[in-house]
Amino acid sequence: MAQNANDTDRAQHLSFSLAGCEYGVGILKVKEILQYEEITRVPSTPRSVRGVINLRGAVVPVIDLAAKFGLPETAVTRLTCILIVEAVLDGQPTVIGVMADAVREVIELGPDDVEPPPTFGTQVRVDYLLGMGKVGKRFVLLLDIDRVISADEKEFAAAVKEGLPAEVPAAAAVPAPAPETAPAA
């Protein structure tokens, strides 16, 4: 009987790699996994907002977690994917895409498999973490996706959801890259 009670306390997480580290997000937050597709850049958005994609007629903002964590933007490879997750925005569920280098596996963790987040040594702010999952001899940083998405990103997602132009504070905005031009002949 004790074994059955312990099984109900176990939670599943989707693990993925990003900039050489392994992260996990609660499986109930993940709606689907997409192979990387072209993302449409949107001018004057936070550096972490890579742009938007068309998901069956809906405009979905895509966040680059590497940029969010202060690292170089995620390089696109054949394994790059977009996790479609549901984050809570002002009490309402909001669909957002999150870039990942590659999806790893679904892991199941019980309460004894999760350690408190470290106070140092990670590229991620401690308040973004639910803990560190022990999977064999490795650790997976478990993200609190609702906290990872910042106020500026939530504002952009809300504007996209309502179909309005996104107004982002100037301090958080990054100009769109200038188009490359051919050298003069």
Automatic annotation (TrEMBL):
Residues 10-154 form the CheW-like domain. It holds the Pfam family CheW. Gene3D superfamilies: CheA-289, Domain 4, SH3 Domains. SMART domains: CheW. It comes from the Bacteria. PANTHER family: CHEMOTAXIS SENSOR HISTIDINE KINASE-RELATED, CHEMOTAXIS SIGNAL TRANSDUCTION SYSTEM ADAPTOR PROTEIN CHEW. This is Chemotaxis protein CheW. The lineage of its organism: Bacteria, Pseudomonadati, Myxococcota, Myxococcia, Myxococcales.
